[in-house]
Amino acid sequence: MDMRLYIDELYEKVSRKEITTDYAVEQIAVAIQTDFPLFKLQRYDEDIRSSVVLAFLKNGYSLFERFDFEYGSTFHNYVISFVKGLALTEKKMQAIEKIREKVDFIYSQENYSTESQKYSFSIAVENNRLLPYEAPESVEIFKPKKILTPKEFMQIRTSNVFAKPTLVIALRSCFDITDTMIETICSEYNLNSDIVYKDIQDLKNSRYELFQRHKELILSRNEAFSNRRRYSPDIADYEESTENLQETYKARYEHSTELWIKRNASLKKGKFHYFPSNEMIAEKLGICPRQVGYYISRAKELFGQAEEE
């Protein structure tokens, strides 16, 4: 069957109330995923196409409410134009995010000064608990005599058990760590801050698309939960609604509930896991992936003990 005719037929069936709007939106979303050249999406990568499908599932129902034959167009052309607009919007948002990341990195590099105020280890941790870097008072902070690169730092011997796990966790937490925390770590361990900043930024750039997909998954989950609440039988005014509107509310409630459950399941399974892999961290530190795994496990033990104390 010609996909254009099929899309027009879906609109006619929705108009005659033979199918629900949500069912028609889902069918068109499948068509976008499988027959993307029809929607002029062949020049976009798979990530953008997937984002377009998610956006269409959220907003596609509005097409059935807004389309009007009096404007002299067919419904399938209206849908194609809408999908092209979603793709351009997604591409623009990705470009904006990449520019923002680059500007933030350049700004942090230009404004970093070795003469700037050096925060104490305990104060930095107290102000921001994203990473539990505070060592017990009985442990003396290890500080080499010369400025070291991360690779040199990982090769030297130290009696401070917190030193190397701290650096590994800093790289692994590249999306969460702040400039203040990076400066604190570099100051306490005499690390070359320029290289540490670059390594963290490289890791962020390499996992940025997954990070964005993870954020979109969370937004989709939240949107589904919001719609589930909105169309819940306990909240929606069913009694004063027509029978057709009641069926629409019920269909949207069931669809949003199903979507909410799926998104939660995906998040629990770690879909779009955006943390850098052990192999990527190992390459930056000049050690093997197994050592990275060891330092991560060791950090959980050490920092957990420090918090208990």
Description of the molecule:
With 309 residues, the chain is an all-alpha fold. Helix content is 68%, strand content 0%. It contains 14 helices and no strands. Helix 1 packs antiparallel against helix 2 and helix 11 (208-230) packs antiparallel against helix 12 (243-268). The chain is elongated. The chain starts with a helix and ends with a helix.
Topology summary:
Blueprint: H1 3-15, H2 21-34, H3 46-59, H4 61-66, H5 75-111, H6 121-127, H7 150-155, H8 163-172, H9 179-189, H10 193-206, H11 208-230, H12 243-268, H13 278-285, H14 289-308
Features:
elongated, 309 residues, 0% strand, 68% helix, single chain, mainly alpha
Write a compact overview of the structure shown.
The chain is mostly helical and 309 residues long.
- Given the C-alpha coordinates, what overall shape results? elongated
Taking pLDDT < 50 over at least 5 consecutive residues as the criterion, the unreliable ranges are 112-135, 137-141
* Total strands: 0
Question: Strand pairing plus helix content: what structural class?
Answer: mainly alpha
Sheet of most strands: none
Helix content: 55-70%
Structure annotation, total helices: 14
- Ends apart, CA distance between termini: 69 Å
- Fraction of residues in β-strands: under 5%
Mean pLDDT: 78
Order of helices and strands: HHHHHHHHHHHHHH
User: What Rg do the Cα atoms give?
Assistant: 26 Å
